[in-house]
Amino acid sequence: MAIAITKPEAMIFDLDGTLFQTETLLLPAYRATFDRLREEGLYEGETPPEKYVLSGLGMLLEHIWQMVMPEVDQAVHRRADELLLKLQIEGMERGDGKLYDGVAHTLQGLRSRGIRLFIASNGLEDYVKGVIRYQGLETLFEPGGLYSAGEYRTRSKADLVRMLLDRHGVSSAWMVGDRSSDVEAGHANGLFVVGCDYAGFRKEGELDQADVRIADFSELLKLVDET
């Protein structure tokens, strides 16, 4: 059942595929990760097709590696975690990675309207905080408001969002994201869900249960102002 739209006290954003064009940072680091795994004798053969890692965006990393290289030991998955994070951080430091059009302006507009802004991501802590820092968005989000499954060891995004709401005393919020895990996390916590329909990483039908869908991030301002 759809949740009625009301003006929110806060907005909780997914990161990859919602605010950040993940592939602009991820794919070079993904290719370099497999170069390093081969050098270290931990992986043989060609780098798995990029479609596997892209289709897993929004999932926990352990589940992504199970799709990308299901035949290897979990120790290799953990080493891949380390390498991918290190290489992505190095990429951020070089200025790699892009936000979707209108993200910075829209977040500033939401903040100026008094809306509290948060992140809830299934990514690793240093990656999530690094993207926000290197993109110059830190001051727009609530202090301590960048939540990641990597930091809090949650098993689902619904649990992560519940923790965020409780810790920050948020009583009404919109969940904004591009994957079914965002829709499920929002509705599990009684939130209005905005589905972001522009990244293209998801499977068909993932956003069917969202309460509203947007084709451009800047549409959020219009939605808020019309509520």
Task: Describe, in plain words, how this protein is organized in 3D.
The protein is an alpha/beta fold. It folds into two domains: about 10-20 and about 100-225, HAD superfamily/HAD-like (Rossmann fold, 3-Layer(aba) Sandwich), CATH 3.40.50; about 25-95. About 45% of the residues lie in helices and about 15% in strands. The strands form two sheets. Strands 5-4-1-6-7-8 form a six-stranded parallel sheet, sandwiched between helices. Strands 2-3 form a two-stranded antiparallel ribbon. The longest helix is centred in the middle third of the chain and has 21 residues, at about 75-95. The two termini are about 20 Å apart.
Present the secondary structure layout.
Blueprint: E1 10-13, E2 20-21, H1 23-39, H2 50-55, H3 61-68, H4 74-94, E3 98-99, H5 103-112, E4 116-121, H6 125-134, E5 146-148, H7 149-152, H8 157-168, E6 173-177, H9 180-188, E7 192-196, E8 212-214, H10 219-225
Parallel strand pairs: 1-4, 1-6, 4-5, 6-7, 7-8
Antiparallel strand pairs: 2-3
Helix pairs in contact: 1-4, 3-4, 4-6, 8-9
Features of this protein?
single chain; 227 residues; alpha/beta; Rossmann fold; 2 domains; 6-stranded parallel β-sheet; two-stranded antiparallel sheet; 46% helix; 13% strand
CATH first level of the largest domain: Alpha Beta
**What is the overall silhouette?**
globular
**Number of distinct beta strands:** 8
| Structural class by secondary-structure content | alpha/beta
Task: Please state the average pLDDT score.
Answer: 93
What CATH calls the topology of the largest domain is Rossmann fold
Helix content: 40-55%
Name of the CATH architecture of the largest domain: 3-Layer(aba) Sandwich
What string gives the helices and strands in order?
EEHHHHEHEHEHHEHEEH
